[in-house]
Amino acid sequence: MPRFPRNRMENMPDPATDIASLLEHCRTLILATLDVNGNPQASPAPFIHDRDNRFYVLVSTMAPHTAHMIALKPTGVMLIEDENDALHIFARRQMNYVCNVSEVFRDQYNYDELIEKLKNQFGSFASALANLPDFHMFSLYPASGRLVVGFGRAYRIKDDIITSIGPEDVAPEN
């Protein structure tokens, strides 16, 4: 049984509902970063999300994407519908963001609270990882994004404003 409500032309939810559904059903996001040589890297990472629309990830310095985030470079984030739940493989629901990055240091006031949320979401293994010296927590705050929910249904997201886009609007974003 699919986890996502199915969109039909006669019953199309608003894009905010699709965003909420992706956030509810995805446990990992895909990070898009550049390594020290400028080569693209894509990596999955478990995440938590807060009411301020920030994503939090706990990652190791052994992963190529971590050096990019330590340098506080903008980072791509993608949440995507599971292949088995998609109506069509070419039209999987997906949300892509360009995010500003900040590190959440162990002595920050909310660090322990965030680790507790990770533990509640993913089990005690998350707190064990947080105690390892090579693990860092990052906050990823979306600056702009794009939501695709099916053929002919795509939206630009900027400053919490969601606008429909069509084929004539697919020029690269700045």
Q: How many individual β-strands?
A: 9
Q: How would you name the CATH homologous superfamily?
A: Electron Transport, Fmn-binding Protein, Chain A
Instruction: Give the terminus-to-terminus CA distance.
Output: 40 Å
Count of individual domains: 1
Instruction: List unreliable stretches of 5+ residues.
Output: 1-10
Residues in β-strands, percent: 35-45%
**Classification by helices and strands:** alpha+beta
Binned, the helix content reads 10-25%
Shape: globular
Largest pleated sheet? 9 strands, antiparallel
CATH architecture: Roll
Give the topology.
Blueprint: H1 15-25, E1 28-34, E2 40-46, E3 48-49, E4 55-60, H2 64-70, E5 75-80, E6 94-104, H3 111-122, H4 125-130, E7 135-150, E8 153-158, E9 161-165
Antiparallel strand pairs: 1-2, 1-5, 3-4, 4-7, 5-6, 6-7, 7-8, 8-9
In brief, what are we looking at here?
This protein has 174 residues and is α+β, with helices and mostly antiparallel strands. It has helices spanning 15-25, 64-70, 111-122, 125-130, and strands at residues 28-34, 40-46, 48-49, 55-60, 75-80, 94-104, 135-150, 153-158, 161-165. Strands 1, 2, 3, 4, 5, 6, 7, 8 and 9 form a 9-stranded antiparallel beta sheet that branches.
